[in-house]
Specification:
The chain has helices at about 30-35, 310-325, 325-330, 335-345; strands spanning about 1-10, 20-25, 45-50, 55, 60-65, 70-80, 85-90, 115-120, 125-130, 135-140, 145-150, 155-160, 165-170, 180-185, 195-200, 205-210, 220-225, 230-235, 245-250, 255-260, 265-270, 285, 300-305, 330. The protein is mostly beta strands. It has two domains: about 1-110 and about 325-345, no CATH class; about 115-310, Sandwich (Jelly Rolls), CATH 2.60.120. Strands 8, 11, 12, 14, 19, 20, 21 and 23 form an eight-stranded antiparallel beta sheet that branches. A five-stranded antiparallel beta sheet has the order 4-3-7-1-24. It has a five-stranded antiparallel beta sheet with strand order 18-17-16-15-22, with no helix packed on it. It is globular, with a radius of gyration of 20 Å.
Amino acid sequence: MSLVATLNVLNTKVAADQTDFIVYVDLADMPALFWSTVANGGGDIRCYKSDGTTELAREVVTCDTATDTGEMHIKYAGTLSSSVDTEIQIHADGTSSEPAVTATYGRNNVWTAYTMVSHMYDLTTSTVQDSTGSTTLTKATASNPNEITTTTPFRTSQSYQTQGDYIVPAAYFNHANITYQAWVRWNAWTSTASYPLAKRSSSSNGGVELKCSGATGDTHGITLRISSTWQGATGPNTDINLDTNYHVVGTYDGTSIYVYEDGVQGTVSSYSGTIPNLNIKTWIGGHVGYPSLYYTQGSIGEARVSPSALSASWIETEYNNQSSASTFYSLGGATASDNALAMCNF
């Protein structure tokens, strides 16, 4: 294995010290040595702390040596510092194989803070990948919604345009606390509200939903609502725009509901109760109770569900990373002496 790049996470982009934070890496940022070494698909990529020996779990979503593009996520075990830059070493040899998804440093162990993570990347015509390994994701039909190259920060998303476009995880996500989050880009408003993520069967029996309120001609704001009384909180922006990327997040910690847009916290709503209707599945892009009314027109990328309420500083740091990966870190190449040492170590 050779050291092919060093990645330095800039402390000024980390809102507060984070534990086991998942760093998104846009592989298009990688230096020439990386692309002249790495195998197509990126199965040979290994990531380490600055000592070159403490390995880190990583997921390579895509790695295309024909176009020098791809997507990778690295879990930085321990503390990602908000006071000093954090170095991550990236190694490759062009031949090593992809570790098993259940391996210590394989895909599933990147996402231990989540119960669903979808990069909205198709593995087959009818399913979308879940990177936690804990559920499966099935499209409404084999071809809808469809994977698209997107202008959101990630290279792929799913395009939702009609009431028949939605994705349903097999798991129920029966969590006492919860975080819903996704990147959403609306290109039109429906006649009612839009639901990027919703766990609800009807208007009367409650659930939990991350929604964009308002129909055509109305103002549009993000809310997270819980329970049959629909206690909720709203985002900081009272009228979001079409054809604009938004990182939308809603959390519930057992006593309070929070909503964030682009890393900024909105209102806080007190609610001490349980999330009802636990045995209802969470739909992505639609609504199980009213699929003909409540759906999303636009694209959804990087949908995630966590069984805990992620902190405000975690969410802000995620937004800093995902909205502009190339300014979240700096990248350097490797020297001949670095590579000689790396070859001795492996």
